[in-house]
What does this fold into?
Amino acid sequence: MQLTLEFGGGLELLCDSVKVHNVDVVPPKGSEKLIMKDLLSWVGTNLIKERPEMFMKGDSVRPGVLVLVNDCDWELSGQLDTTLEEKDVVVFISTLHGG
Amino acid sequence: MEVAESKSKKAGGRLCSTCNQRKAALKRPKTLEQICRECFYEVFEEEIHQVIVGNQLFKAGERIAIGASGGKDSTVLAFVLSELNRRHNYGLDLFLLSIDEGISGYRDDSLQTVKRNEIQYGLPLKIVSYKDLYGWTMDEIVKVIGLKNNCTFCGVFRRQALDRGASLLKVDKIATGHNADDIAETVLLNILRGDIARLSRCTLITTGEDGPIPRCKPFKYTYEKEIMFTYAYFKRLDYFSTECIYSPNAYRGFAREFIKDLERLRPRAILDIIKSGENFRISTSTKMPEQGTCERCGYISSQKWCKACVLLEGLNRGLPKMGIVRSRGQNNERTKDMKQNKGTKNIESKQCGTLDF
It folds into this structure.
């Protein structure tokens, strides 16, 4: 599944300072759909190069990291259960860095 | 934007609770409403306008400096204030005021952002540097003192630098971008530190009204999430974010993380903490530090010398720990030094940033 992932607010520093990543993510074995929970663990394994605790806490993003799926607050689409589709754009922005 | 429209099915069932027409894009932490982008912009700016009017933050004809770091909060503040000033005819002369701490590779970049803001919003910009004011850059200070207490120096110097820059600009007031999350965090920190004087001050929307240049916080009730959402992302405003190279772990601060954890459980908690801070009654028998002026530079100080002068004296005399270590000193020389500012409260190396402006 082709997705565009964007990191901002300092989170890009955790993945080689690259802000936009065009990626291909396969749904987990035995599942037809890809949900945010799967994507987060994929990102944790494949994109985050340092200090993963700045991005994840438990199986979700750490509080203070905003998540937008196609410009929409993921709190409106079910957070970890949000189903992703081909060509979705997912944005992660940290509010934890200075203002 | 087009992507969002064509992919509306995901949150398709959720319409904006204000207009009932467009797709909701944000869950507001303050009210838990789901709201569309257009309605949100409107209510976001209107709420800030109401805070400004309701608290009489500004008077027509005043000159106002916006403390501009190049970060998201101050960038959004510059945008909102210039917008509201025009729309509601506040009659304010707005300026951007930035501090150059002299941290190569960090402040250089963010000052570039502020310079772009100057052009984008048509607001005159003034930059004052630590080097000019104090004779030291943060780079030079770190070379002498290392990475342990550098945030103390930076914080104390920044606070004064902003005032000095403001008096150079001859402004009547400084507006800073502190948001509700910042203030809740400061309330907690002041409780943990037992700092009664700051606790009673930190929730005030305007401070220093008896001093030369008052400061105000138009974003006192504005959630960081909304600042981030509206402007930094949807409007693709130019803002800068990186970590201070000398304090890569500052954001790990306990209070900050705790506030964010609370927010996830119950977003109202942030406003509730601010409210609790406001409602603290300081017993009249509590001895509060008296506000005087520094004998050396004339800046407001509750001690003989202001904190910046004590720190600076230490740097210039090659005793950079002066003013940092506890006065129950380990050696006599230092104990003697500390006596001239007896009772100076130890500011432990606290988080970098602007917690107690």
The longest strand of chain B covers residues 93-100. Residues 292-339 of chain B form one domain.
